[in-house]
Structures are given as C-alpha cells and as structure tokens.
Amino acid sequence: MVTNLNLQDTTTLHNGIQMPWFGIGVFKVEEGSELVQAIKSAVKHGYRSIDTAAIYENETSVGQGIREALLESQIPREELFVTSKVWNADLGYESTLAAYETSLNKLGLEYLDLYLIHWPVKGKYKEAWRALETLYKEGRVKAIGVSNFQIHHLEDVMKDAEVRPMVNQVEYHPLLSQKELLRFSKEQGIQLEAWSPLMQGQLLDHPVLKEIASKHGKSVAQVILRWDLQHGVVTIPKSTKEHRIIENASVFDFELTAADIAQIDGLNQDQRVGPDPDNFDF
C-alpha cells in the first residue's frame, strides 16, 4: 500500500525516471481556450503530470497551456511530466517515429517524458515498440510504455524487447480492478496507471462509495482516487473546471482504512466503459 503522499510525490520507474503519482487527463477535451486554461489551472494548483494522446486531437492546446503555465509559474520544463500516445493507424516502425515527431511539433516541446502505444493492435504493436525503443535509446523520450495491454500482450512484447515497458495505462476503477494485471505489473516493475478512474462519472452515486466518502468527509471521487493511490496505481482524472481540478487533487490529507480498501475491492465486476483490448475493432 502506498501512503503518506503529496501532490508532487513521484514513483520511480524501472529506468530511474520519476513519474508523478497524480496528474490531469484531457480525453475528449476539444482544442481551445477551455483546455489551455485547464492546463494552466492544474499547474498553478500543483499538478506536474499532463496526459494527452494523438487521437484526442488536442495536443496543440495542451502545448499552449503548458507554455503559458511555465511562463506564469516560472517552473522549469523539467518539473513537468508530459505523456502522449501513438494512435493505432500509425503503428509500425517508421510511422511510429513520424507520429512522435508530429506530436512533439503540435505540443511545441523538445521531448516527451512518456510515450505510449495506445492500443495493442494485433500484428502491429511489436514494430511500434521497436520504434519506441529507438526513440528511448536516442534520448528523445525519457520513458516508454504501453496502454490497454493485458498480461499476454505484455509477455508478447517483452519476449523480443530490448527495453521493458515502464508504464501500462489501462482502464482501472472499482468495477474493473484488474487484480491479476496489477500483480503482474508489480512483479515486472511496470507501473500501472489508471485512465477513467471515476468510470466516466458512473460511480459517483454508488451507495458503498458514498458511505465511505461520508465517513471520511470526502467526495466519492476523492475516495476512488485515493483508492488508486493506495494500491500503487498512478491516476490522471480528467477535468476542465478549476474547482474540480482542486477537489480531485485534495486526496493527500486522508487515508482509507484496510477495511475501506477491502470493501471497495469487493465491488469489482470486471465491467468496462471502454473497449475490451482483446475484442476491439481497430
């Protein structure tokens, strides 16, 4: 169990890179001033990790938000941890290298802290992984990893890989706790990261979670995010509203008990809001 954290605390990836435990996600947030302001708000309120992807089609605004936030805060770029992902259509050795350049250009950055393969497209992800290894060996990206990979996908990649994935970002919330994947990831030194930690808002009225939240004087969202952290899972809740950005990060002043954790663990139904990585029509 991971405890005694604050918003700037980091987990050490297996290559020694420090990755914040907590960040902001921008899935389905459109390009524009709202997104720029959300990034600036997040950095202003202590966030140091920002997660985007090529398919979100918002890297330009994310980059603008980062530049403006750094200018206003006087924080060095090195203190931010920026993630993007290569989309399915670009999986392949040369196409992945080109996709990385495109993402960098849109973001207006010289490097990414983490670059991920977005989905395990059969027959394509191993060539893409080779490209990520090249980018990593050339020092063009600080860390590389995957997203939505199941255990068998990870085993398949690692069979031929020269560099083991550092991160696996997956759908993870109380109704999809992926215990075996979490156990395997810890054994292999691969950091698990949660997308859709609040199940796109579907868990906010769950009676068990509401009861635990009431006991701690916290919101259901805060309880879920705290549960992620205490399981040693990096989490990146999405929000564009400043008050919600602040509220989401207010999870470092309380701790769930072992009984709370067990109760939340017991809610698992292997229920997804996103596609099944093994049956996703790419």
From TrEMBL:
<dbReference type="InterPro" id="IPR044500">
    <property type="entry name" value="AKR5G"/>
</dbReference>
<protein>
    <submittedName>
        <fullName>Diketogulonate reductase-like aldo/keto reductase</fullName>
    </submittedName>
</protein>
<dbReference type="InterPro" id="IPR020471">
    <property type="entry name" value="AKR"/>
</dbReference>
<dbReference type="InterPro" id="IPR036812">
    <property type="entry name" value="NAD(P)_OxRdtase_dom_sf"/>
</dbReference>
<dbReference type="InterPro" id="IPR018170">
    <property type="entry name" value="Aldo/ket_reductase_CS"/>
</dbReference>
<dbReference type="Pfam" id="PF00248">
    <property type="entry name" value="Aldo_ket_red"/>
</dbReference>
<dbReference type="InterPro" id="IPR023210">
    <property type="entry name" value="NADP_OxRdtase_dom"/>
</dbReference>
<feature type="domain" description="NADP-dependent oxidoreductase">
    <location>
        <begin position="33"/>
        <end position="268"/>
    </location>
</feature>
